[in-house]
């Protein structure tokens, strides 16, 4: 079935991105970077991911999904491999920016292509979460940065080769797809709360490995903490798809507030694992709920998906900067309280409007 192949492509893509991402903050520090430099490297990646997602999400509506899936996978393989040459913080920032742009080309197009071949996103998203699991696990096992980057490149290369087995994309009739602004204003109750929640989350994730390291975690246990979240997601994504979109979305916002408030009270890294399972429930409800609302309309799905992924990665650009600054002046726990407050405002907005 085409959906199974598309889901496997998602698995390989997310394996690649997650394996490369997990230890980027630690690599930045080892290259001589400060907490602020950690934020700048993460921000470069997130900004180019954001730009490419918006640009190519719209193009996927106008010109078809499959060509951008293949283009993005090929570019991603090259950029992941190029990370092996990073010898300074500046070089790493440029290379992560290239990776972000390549992923922005493919991610939204692949998501919508999967949706249109099944009418849902649960199975595909569960496979993507499984890719996150595999990526974080393999990163924890391999530990050496160059081996991890090589693994990411090879996985994307395999996905690119397999994408040529997809032959049957059917383009709809030429219609006037809604503009990006029309999509954003129509669904502001989703996009704005989602943006606030993910801005807070991204400010945490950039310093999260350092926070866990401060609590006594090794690289292996840091990878396991990330993997625990993804295991939960892979189990819950398919179940969450059956729920009502807006109810799921608001539940995800509420659970996010709780998770972000629990993080500062950890006294040992072992305590993070049950919280990570709660985080998995929060993200599954939030993400699947948002997609169910945004993609149920037939027009402009590429634009809608690109805007959501763009929002995630705009937060990926801004969040590390915010997280780096807050951590530099007030410590890691201040970042987590900030994230909880943003999610709370997002929950209010989704009800108020």
From TrEMBL:
Topology of this chain in the membrane: Multi-pass membrane protein
Predominant subcellular localization, coarse grouping: membrane
Organism: Ammonifex degensii (strain DSM 10501 / KC4)
Record has Ion transport as a keyword: no
Full protein name: Major facilitator superfamily MFS_1
Gene Ontology, cellular component aspect: plasma membrane
Single GO MF descriptor: transmembrane transporter activity
Top-level taxon in the UniProt lineage: Bacteria
Transmembrane parts of this sequence: 35-56, 68-86, 92-115, 124-142, 148-166, 194-212, 218-236, 248-266, 272-295, 307-328, 334-351
């Amino acid at each position: 079935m085409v959906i199974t192949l598309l889901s496997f492509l998602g698995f390989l893509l997310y394996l690649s991105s997650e394996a490369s991402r997990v230890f980027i903050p630690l690599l930045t520090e080892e290259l001589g970077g400060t907490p602020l430099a950690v934020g700048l490297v993460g921000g470069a990646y997130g900004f180019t991911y954001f730009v490419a997602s918006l640009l190519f999400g719209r193009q996927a509506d106008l010109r078809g999904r499959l060509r951008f899936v293949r283009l993005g996978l090929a570019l991603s393989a090259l950029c992941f491999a190029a990370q092996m040459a990073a010898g300074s913080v500046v070089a790493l920032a440029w290379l992560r920016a290239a990776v972000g742009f390549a992923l922005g080309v493919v991610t939204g197009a692949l998501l919508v292509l999967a949706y249109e071949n099944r009418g849902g996103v649960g199975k595909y998203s569960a496979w993507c979460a499984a890719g996150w699991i595999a990526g974080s696990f393999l990163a924890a096992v391999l530990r050496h940065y160059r081996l991890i980057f090589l693994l990411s490149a090879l996985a994307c290369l395999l996905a690119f080769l397999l994408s040529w087995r997809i032959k049957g994309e059917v383009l709809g009739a030429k219609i006037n797809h809604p503009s990006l602004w029309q999509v954003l204003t129509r669904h502001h109750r989703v996009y704005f709360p989602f943006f606030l929640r993910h801005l807070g989350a991204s400010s945490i994730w950039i310093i999260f490995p350092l926070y866990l390291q401060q609590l006594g975690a090794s690289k292996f246990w840091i990878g396991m903490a990330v993997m625990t979240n993804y295991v939960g997601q892979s189990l819950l994504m398919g179940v969450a798809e059956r729920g009502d979109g807006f109810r799921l979305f608001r539940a995800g916002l509420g659970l996010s507030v709780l998770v972000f408030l629990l993080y500062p009270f950890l006294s040992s890294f072992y305590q993070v694992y049950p919280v990570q399972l709660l985080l998995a429930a929060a993200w599954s409800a939030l993400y699947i709920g948002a997609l169910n609302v945004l993609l149920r309309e037939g027009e402009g799905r590429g634009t809608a998906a690109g805007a959501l992924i763009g929002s995630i990665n705009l937060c990926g650009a801004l969040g590390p900067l915010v997280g780096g600054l807050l951590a530099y002046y007030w410590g890691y726990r201040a970042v987590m309280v900030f994230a909880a407050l943003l999610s709370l405002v997002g929950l209010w907005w989704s009800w108020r409007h």
